[in-house]
Predict the 3D structure of the following.
Amino acid sequence: MKLFAAAALLAGGLAAQPALAASPDTRAVLTTYADIAHAVYEDSLISAKALQSAIDALVAQPSPDTLEAARQAWIAARVPYQQSEVYRFGNPIVDDWEGRVNAWPLDEGLIDYVDQDYYGNESGENLLFTANVIASTSLTINGKTVDTSQITKDLLRDVLHEAEEVEANVATGYHAIEFLLWGQDLNGTEAGAGNRPHTDYDLQNCTGGNCDRRAAYLQTAAAMLVEDLEEMTGYWSAEGEARVELLGLPEEEALGRIVTGMGSLSYGELAGERMKLGLMLHDPEEEHDCFSDNTHNSHYYNALGIRNVYLGSYRRIDGTEVSGPSLSSLAVAKDAAADADMKAKLDATMDSMTVLVQTAEAGEAYDQMIGAGNVEGNAKVQAAIDSLVGQTRSLEKVVAALSLSAVKFEGSDSLDAPEKVGQ
């Protein structure tokens, strides 16, 4: 898959950062953090609106070209959003919201038709495993008959999303849209992504059945994504709830939120759940953007988001930068060696992530890299995991230098207790 704005971001995103005045006040650092949050969510919103327009064009005139344009708009929309995930874990307002837009993995049979030879036809953990709401005008959920004849926002959010308290029942967000644009990736760890035909949206030459309902679902999910991102952008605006709350906290607690987001994404979430688990199992179902084969980009921009926050600098999709006093500025004043080590480890991580991007763009997708027997590909993924673990250890030194107490990063069995994986 194409890396959106690759040259600018690989070159500009890793450029040396300008020196900042020593010992900035903590409030200035928190303000930079909030300013970057607002910018990255606003860019996510702008990109989601472009995706919505591309989806509308696909539905209005289904063709190979309009389908490809919608797919490319989805890939572009992931660039800013993945850089926002560093705001999770430490900020409850983001954590409580995030499941609407980026929940994964999902049991796609809830949404649409699937190849049951590949996917299966039942799950002991999910009664809605193959519910296929697009083909159903009613479903039984929690023992009650539910009218699904109209594809509405309320149906997707309040009825289907995490229905029966099953987290894999993902009905909204980027990955539901991804599935509707690409369809299942039936290639395992061999070459190829999902290959849904444009005729799945063609009312005159409909494939897959229920093309009108599929279009309604896709457009509804896109509209909901825009609304959700409008909400989060507002939360980080000048008078927004997330910004006001953060700036109102005791300084140590507020800084703790920043490093918690960085460390938890770096270690437990990205190195562990998104990378090491799939590598251990050699399982493409554990890759993040599994329908589109965009996972290499997804991981790259997650890592870049961590770097952005530490250095207090974010390059927007229009090429402008948001920057200011940073966590690095505070750290260098307390322990210059710890800060230098952290920056070196961040650079090493971006180098290893760039290898994944370059490998994928040369024709070997991430799901192929993690395949059993792919010694070279496995080693590239493991190197990126090792870099993420290394930068997390360096971040712990920064936490100590800043005398931040009660900071705990999310873990992962795949890293901390690999013997439990698969039990």
Remarks:
- DSSP finds 16 helices and four strands in the chain.
